[in-house]
């Protein structure tokens, strides 16, 4: 009977590489983000979409970030609810993907993209009606200054 060959030894650098790859995978998949933060961003986006679908523009305005609300009112020269009604934002549909970076979130819906920020009172919509532009930042119908 012959002795089994010893398992191949890893070099110390390989251990660090494996650990870095695992950490990068967690960050890229969003696994490192706490569920309450992800869920909070998703709930805010869903409530915003539901308010728009019900034509509850006052409710949708309450979910806008302060600067986005001010910018909307300035641009339309009308109160937020009236201005938001005139925006004709798409029915976003269900959330397909959520990315959270610190206090910022990007939510890809079926037919829209939303940007949110976390404030003391919870997640607020910073931009809506957003579409990617080839080689450029997103173009958003509703956004803060």
Please give a quick description of this structure.
With 145 residues, the chain is an alpha+beta fold.
How would you describe this protein?
The chain has 145 residues and is α+β, with helices and mostly antiparallel strands. It has one domain: Nuclear Transport Factor 2, Chain: A (Roll). The chain contains five helices and five strands, in the order αααααβββββ. The protein has a five-stranded antiparallel beta sheet with strand order 1-2-3-4-5. About 17% of the residues have low confidence.
Q: Compute the CA-based radius of gyration.
A: 22 Å
Q: Please summarize the sheet with the most strands.
A: 5 strands, antiparallel
Strand % is: 25-35%
CATH class: Alpha Beta
Choose one word for the global shape. globular
Helix content: 40-55%
Any idea of the CATH topology? Nuclear Transport Factor 2, Chain: A
Oligomer: single chain
Which secondary-structure class do the elements indicate? alpha+beta
Number of helices: 5
Q: Give the spatial strand order of the biggest sheet.
A: 1-2-3-4-5
Low-confidence stretches: 8-32
Order of helices and strands: HHHHHEEEEE
How many domains is the backbone divided into? 1
N- and C-termini, Cα separation: 78 Å
């Amino acid at each position: 009977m012959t002795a089994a060959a010893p398992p191949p030894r890893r070099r110390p650098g390989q251990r660090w590489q494996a650990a870095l790859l695992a950490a990068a995978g967690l960050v890229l998949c969003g696994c490192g983000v706490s569920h309450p933060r992800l869920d909070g961003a998703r709930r805010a986006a869903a409530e915003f979409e539901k308010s728009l679908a019900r034509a509850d523009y006052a409710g949708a305005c309450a979910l806008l970030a302060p600067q986005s609300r001010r910018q909307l009112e300035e641009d339309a020269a009308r109160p937020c609810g009236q201005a938001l009604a005139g925006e004709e934002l798409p029915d976003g549909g269900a959330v397909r993907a959520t990315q959270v970076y610190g206090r910022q979130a990007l939510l890809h819906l079926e037919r829209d993209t939303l940007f949110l920020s976390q404030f003391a009172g919870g997640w607020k919509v910073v931009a809506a009606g957003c579409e990617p532009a080839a080689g450029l930042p997103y173009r958003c119908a509703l956004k803060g200054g």
